[in-house]
Amino acid sequence: MKYKKDLKKAFVATIPVLAGYLALGFGFGVLLSTEGYGALWALFMSITMFGGSMQYAAVGFLADGISLLSAAVMTLIINARHLFYGISLVDKYRGAGLKKVYMIHALTDETYSLVCNDDAVKDVKNKHFYYFTVSFLDHCYWIAGCTLGAVFGTNVQFNSEGIDFVLTALFLTIFVEQWLSSKDHTSAIIGVVCAAVCTMIFHENMLIPTMIAILVSLVVLRFVRRDKYDG
Amino acid sequence: MDSSTLHSIGLVLVMAVVSYLLRAFPFLVFSGKQTPKFVLYLGKVLPYAIIAMLVVYCVKDISFTAVKNFLPYIISGGLVVLLHVWKRNTLLSIVAGTLSYMALVQFVF
């Protein structure tokens, strides 16, 4: 095979994601099965949606049978951050042809963090092949984790009370990681304050007002501290 | 196939299509031109605020009426934060936090 070395490099790079996706996907599959949706649903959702937080949230949406419009709006809100991932990859993915159509679909938080690592592609022969392989392997791990979890949850009797904490743990971990790896905590604090205030006012409908409050605050922040962010 | 199954399939498809459009949007808009500075700014700062919002969203239903309703959250949430500051291992933080929470709500409280 022409790019055997690139393939190996891609696999090695994705090993941490392999572990993470099997565990998180498994948690999703178990959670989904507790609502009466089995392995076929896990397979269907992990192939077509491919997103951790989105799929966890979707379990509740399916159980409640929310409207298609609400589902569209909630997806916009929960996955809005993906709007910004693509921005830094526009140049990297340029000229990837049909591969790009799939690479866009498979662009998750974890895949994003891998393809952003420029050190990893220094000796790679075909970068687009490498990016595509990383995306595809991550997707496979995720599909395997989700489906296995649903099979397990459907067939093995166990007390799953509290497993939904996995989502809280996921976001909390990302939050701590971002906090530790950045010097400027203004945006994180804005997020906490806006969300807390909007929760007090709007209760369970806090997501949309919070997003608006965050956007307005960040726009104001940019004008107040123009010097800092224009560099 | 009954109507609720069809509705569920519809929900998954809607969520899948909207997810794809969001992911594709920057590639469509900025395919030729230079990315505006303002968008780059939002791309840089927005993720921090959004993740913070999602954390608050997850803990917003905690009830402080009884100890068993909030103490497992505080213990396991604290464990996630401490473990992550200490080890910086995402998988470890998530698995340890979730297992401890499940153990607390099932056996302790």
What would you say this structure looks like, in words?
The complex is a heterodimer of chains A (231) and B (109). Chain A is 74% helix and 0% strand. Chain A has two domains: 4-162, no CATH class; 182-231. With 231 residues, chain A is mostly helical. The longest helix of chain A is centred in the N-terminal third of the chain and has 31 residues, at 4-34. Helices cover 83% and strands 0% of the residues of chain B. Chain B contains four helices and no strands. The longest helix of chain B is centred in the N-terminal third of the chain and has 27 residues, at 3-29. The chains are: A mainly alpha (231), B mainly alpha (109). At the A-B interface, α1, α2, α3, α4 and α5 of A face α1, α2, α3 and α4 of B.
As a whole number of angstroms, the C-alpha radius of gyration of chain A is 19 Å
Q: Number of helical runs of chain A?
A: 12
Helix % of chain A is over 70%
Task: Give the low-confidence spans of chain B.
Answer: none
Number of strands of chain A: 0
The assigned structural class of chain B equals mainly alpha
By oligomeric state, this entry counts as heterodimer
Overall pLDDT level of chain B: 88
Helix and strand pattern of chain B? HHHH
Strand content of chain A: under 5%
End-to-end CA span of chain A = 45 Å
Low-confidence stretches of chain A: none
* Sheet having the most strands of chain B: none
Structural class of chain A comes to mainly alpha
Largest interface: A-B, 92 and 69 residues
What percentage of amino acids of chain B are in beta strands? under 5%
Q: Overall 3D geometry of chain B?
A: extended
Total DSSP E strands of chain B:
0
Distance between the ends of chain B? 42 Å
Write the layout of secondary structure elements.
The complex is a heterodimer of chains A (about 230) and B (about 110).
Chain A: H1 4-34, H2 39-48, H3 52-64, H4 68-78, H5 82-87, H6 98-105, H7 109-115, H8 127-155, H9 165-180, H10 186-202, H11 207-224, H12 226-229
Helix pairs in contact in A: 1-3, 1-8, 2-8, 6-8, 7-8, 10-11
Chain B: H1 3-29, H2 37-59, H3 67-87, H4 90-108
Helix pairs in contact in B: 3-4
